[in-house]
Fold these 2 entries.
Entry 1:
Amino acid sequence: MRKPIIAGNWKMNKRLSEAKTFAESLIPLVNTINDCDIIIAPPFTYLSALDDILKSSSISLSAQTMSHELAGAFTGDISAVMITDCGCKYVIIGHSEQRLYHQETNQACQEKCKVAMQNKLTPIYCVGESLKERTNNITLTVIQKQILECITDLPLDSQEIIIAYEPVWAIGTGKVATPEEAQAVHQFIRQTIEKAKGTEIANKTRILYGGSVKPANIEDLINQADIDGALVGGACLELDSFVELIKKTNYVTH
Ligand code: PEP
């Protein structure tokens, strides 16, 4: 049984006061939710303040990225231990915006996931094809490479990784993959994990969909056999839509 997840990626949004109000308001709205893991990924600078607010709730914190280095002369970078000190249980690795603007490669993602796991963080590892790659019919080749180059040497027998399939053409564009298109890629990801790591690990790995998820389309997505929740950008910034996504996901377990 895989418990579904709704994870909200705030990206570079909200002021500190807005972040605190959001977290304080969210807690009572989701305190009866037991069957969906709730994660929010605010900017680094808000993690500590939000940890103080959320630590007695079931809402977990994630960082949006991290360095693969643990300490030293890396101006501007943040390490795994720094984000765990701020209360994070999760870290997003390989988001398409990090791949695009910070040249994050599959190899770099693999190193970051390894260091994250060594520091008791669960990586939320993002994969996804560009529009050009989909048009050229190489979606599955791209996804397979992204998955294998990251997970092959990771200790998934003892630690969890969460995969987020986020077609780049669907992120922030309002164009959502159809449930069938998304399911086909999710099933392929699970088969790829199975070949690399075995059936047990493949069956327990949670695979999220991301890309223009909204309250209006979440149910059709989450009802697909291999879609175990969503990584949400735009629709996680408003309290009402984030809570609606969580409530609609709370009853679906694959
Ligand atoms: C994201 O950036 O991870 C994302 C899925 O964004 P949006 O929901 O806005 O498409």
Entry 2:
Amino acid sequence: MKPEKNKNFKFKHSLGQNFITDEFLLEDIADESGITKDDFVLEIGPGNGALTRCLSDRAYHVVAVEIDKSLIPLLKSNLKDYQNVSIINADFLNYDFQNIINEFPVGANDIKVVANLPYYITSPIINNLLQNPYISEMTLMVQKEVAERIVAEPNGKDYGILTLACNYFSDTEMLMVVSKECFFPKPKVDSAVVHFKKHDEFIGTKLASPLNETYEKLFKLIKASFAQRRKKLLNSLTNAGYDKETLVTAFSKLNFDENVRAENLSLNDYKNLLSLVGS
Ligand code: SAM
């Protein structure tokens, strides 16, 4: 079903509703996600269910969470022949994750997410998924510019807090760039699909919380570093209240050039710096 052909449904720009109309692209995303018949899959924002069908063909079970109540009858009708799909009408960001787990027919502790994300809440959703110990992998369509920031290497303009946060929890890879022509309504910008493979230490339902004190301190340091990204790191961190003498000693021990800027340091460099400057 082409979404533009459905007279009972009005697209809501406020909910980031840009549906994929290219059948080949839907199959490609499902293929590239690497989903198999053993996998528990979560789709955020199934829309009219076009991607959901491709996921259902490959997965053990798919739970699809859609915020827009007016899409639920359409989703149910489009997915009526797909026995391994559960549809939930909820706001993913304000929904108890335990209810999602309960929708899988047998206990799920390793869930893979595949989604064409609503762009207005890309960052909160990515943060939520990275920190969720039930999630092991994500294949996410995001705006191309956001994808470039996620997979950026040090020393470039795209490299920043988002890159480092994603690197902290996962290995990331850009799978494909997608033209805005593949959607209806057509968005203003192109998109891209990124794959996230979480590091083992952040997967496992027995984890109390991956967000320990070190994480908080590390990202306080990283945020302070990038607050004035064109400035020398030494000045940015001194301005943020870190002790200059301690910083100078740490820079020398770590062989950082005194002119180094925030974008020149890797995640490991920041971890090493934290171990010498403390909070
Ligand atoms: N999966 C469909 C596709 O690829 O064609 C639609 C993707 S569209 C970019 C984003 C979808 O997310 C829309 O169906 C929208 O209603 C839904 N959505 C927006 N905010 C949401 C939220 N907080 N929780 C769950 N779904 C949401």
